[in-house]
Structures are given as C-alpha cells and as structure tokens.
TrEMBL record:
GO terms for molecular function: DNA-binding transcription factor activity. InterPro entries: HTH_MarR-typ, MarR/SlyA-like, WH-like_DNA-bd_sf, WH_DNA-bd_sf. Residues 1-135 form the HTH marR-type domain. GO terms for biological process: response to stress. This is Transcriptional regulator, MarR family. It comes from the Bacteria. It comes from Nitratidesulfovibrio vulgaris (strain ATCC 29579 / DSM 644 / CCUG 34227 / NCIMB 8303 / VKM B-1760 / Hildenborough) (Desulfovibrio vulgaris). It holds the Pfam family MarR.
Length: 137
C-alpha cells in the first residue's frame, strides 16, 4: 500500500536527517536542541524567552536551560527588553552567528547531496510537496 511505503520513506529520511544533526552538533560540542535554538534565533532575530519557547514548541523552563548553556559557551546573550521590562531578549553573539552560518552551510551541502539523484523537475515537485504538507493548518 502506498501509505505504508510513504510512512517508511518518511521515517527513513527522518532517521537519516536526525543522525546527521547529531553528528554535526557533536562536532561543535552542542546538542541538537542547542543547534535548533541557535537556528531559531538566527531566523527570527532577538526574541523574548517565551516567544523562543513557543517557536521551538517547548517550555520556557527548557529554553532557560538551553540559553544558560549557550550563554556560558559565548553563543548567545541576554538583553533587557525595552518594550517589556518584565522580559529579557535573547540574541546570537557574533560567535553564535558564525557557528549558525557554518551549520546552515552544512545543511545546504547535505541537501545538495540528497537531491543530486533527482532531476530539476523532481526537485521542484518535491519542494512543492514539502511546502504543502508543512504549512500550518
């Protein structure tokens, strides 16, 4: 059945990507959630902790621990939030931005390797499908 094959293919791709993410994070002395935190800050800019937690789909307590560890490594910094004195903004440091850019470059390289066997029209179709199924409902 096609649904079974799709399910197996999605699981196989997920496992391949997660294994790659673990390897890349380990090389930098980070965890996968820490690299995702850096990526979220790189994409969205400085964020209040609560909003960062929301983007990451986790709790503010979890994000606080992640930010504490990333701050200790010099990858992020906290700033007062001028718009809301009750919250703190978190942003990447220059070191954190450099780390993220290297990580993003590796993502692009991995994507190119994964897509190499596909013809341009297949790549375009895959992109369309992925964008369709990952749209918020």
């Amino acid at each position: 059945m096609i649904t079974d094959r799709l399910s197996q293919a999605i699981v196989a791709l997920h496992e391949r990507l997660l294994s790659w993410e673990h390897d890349v994070a380990r090389e930098k002395g980070l965890t996968v959630p820490q690299t995702h935190t850096l990526g979220c800050l790189a994409m969205h800019g400085p964020l209040p902790m609560k909003q960062l937690a929301s983007y990451m789909g986790t709790t503010t307590g979890t994000v606080t621990v992640l930010i504490d560890r990333l701050e200790a490594k010099g990858f992020v910094e906290r700033h007062p939030n001028e718009r809301d004195k009750r919250s703190t903004l978190v942003s990447l440091t220059a070191l954190g931005q450099d780390l993220y850019e290297g990580h993003a470059r590796r993502h692009r390289e991995m994507t190119a390797r994964l897509m190499a066997p596909l013809a341009p029209d297949q790549r375009a179709a895959l992109l369309d499908y992925l964008e369709t199924i990952t749209r918020p409902v």
